[in-house]
Automatic annotation (TrEMBL):
Annotated metabolic or biological route of this protein: Purine metabolism; 7-cyano-7-deazaguanine biosynthesis
GO MF annotation terms: 4 iron, 4 sulfur cluster binding; carbon-nitrogen lyase activity; magnesium ion binding; S-adenosyl-L-methionine binding
E.C. code: 4.3.99.3
The species this protein was found in: Alkalimarinus sediminis
One BP annotation, GO: tRNA queuosine(34) biosynthetic process
Name assigned to this protein: 7-carboxy-7-deazaguanine synthase
Gene field: queE
Cofactor binding note from Swiss-Prot or TrEMBL: Binds 1 S-adenosyl-L-methionine per subunit.
Family: Belongs to the radical SAM superfamily. 7-carboxy-7-deazaguanine synthase family.
Record flagged with keyword S-adenosyl-L-methionine: yes
Binding site for Mg(2+): T55
Length: 235
């Protein structure tokens, strides 16, 4: 008997990729529920393997969130957000520009707990390129077009090949040199934001930006990336 795969999605939205080498690219974000490194509950944060997470990935109650019974159903919802986003945000000239590749970013929570080859194939059938934001602790299904691995100090990375490494900095037990063995096209440092700051000035992040800048100046293999969406005040 084949098992029924249900996807649990916290939220989905159309925005600009705010981080890494694809920064500035219009994208549909599909944020899966659940992570293997934190429950997502504040009371568990201090004891979590990953304790600086800036994201709510608990449940399915966010915008356009829910459970999806089939890859086709989830792919259709993603397609609708791409189409709708273009209609409400983009000008008609770019809608007419059929050279633009629709782009979906699977994130979370930890997307590799749920993303499978069938869903990736379904997105490709709809003409999408598929990006993934992962902590790198789980094997990846075939067919991902852009893989971003963001290592966490206390979690073993099993993905040794990807398009970009995006290390949140600083993590005292995860100096950038530790990840030179990951075969990637790009190596980014992303200054750690204070998860307690929802709006207003993030003093810790301001200091982490200075530290990351100094590291990149001293080690040019690493480039700085900022969370552009937070600067812009978008999702
Ligand atoms: C919320 S995670 C979800 C995907 C996956 N679980 C991961 O960790 O890569 C998305 C991205 O946000 C980054 N991130 C999480 N908390 C952050 C923080 N406080 N400051 C900067 N980046 C953060 C993660 O490292 C990751 O690159
Ligand atoms: N605009 C925007 N860009 C992002 N890049 C990675 C994100 C994530 O949470 O995975 C993210 C996000 O949440 N919003
Ligand atoms: S691994 Fe990713 S989703 Fe999980 S707690 Fe850390 S940053 Fe958040
Ligand atoms: Mg985010």
């Amino acid at each position: 008997m084949s098992s029924v795969n249900v996807y649990r999605v916290k939220e989905m939205f159309y925005s600009l990729q705010g981080e890494g080498a694809q920064s500035g690219r219009a994208s549909v974000f599909c944020r899966f529920s659940k992570c293997n490194l934190w429950t997502g509950r504040e009371r568990d944060r201090a004891d979590a393997v990953c304790n600086f997470c800036d994201t709510d990935f608990v449940g399915t109650d966010g915008q356009n969130g829910g459970t999806f019974d089939t890859p086709k159903a989830l792919a259709a919802a993603i397609q609708a957000l791409w189409d709708g986003g273009q209609q409400t945000i983009a000008d008609t000239a770019s809608v007419a520009n059929n050279r633009v590749k629709p782009y979906v970013i699977f994130t979370g929570g930890e997307p590799l707990l749920q993303l499978d080859e069938t869903l990736i194939d379904e997105m490709h059938l709809s003409g999408f390129e598929v990006g993934v934001e992962t902590n790198g602790t789980r094997p990846a299904p075939k067919g991902i077009d852009w893989l971003c691995v963001s290592p966490k100090a206390d979690a073993e990375v099993v993905l040794t090949q990807c398009d970009e490494v995006k290390l949140v900095y600083p993590q005292p037990l995860a100096p950038p040199e530790r990840f030179n063995n990951i075969d990637a096209q790009h190596y980014f440092l992303s200054p750690m934001a204070d998860p307690a700051v929802i709006t207003g000035r993030d003093e810790k992040k301001a200091n982490n930006m200075r530290l990351a800048t100094a590291y990149c100046l001293a080690h040019p293999q690493w480039r700085l990336t900022l969370q552009m969406h937070k600067i812009l005040g978008i999702d």
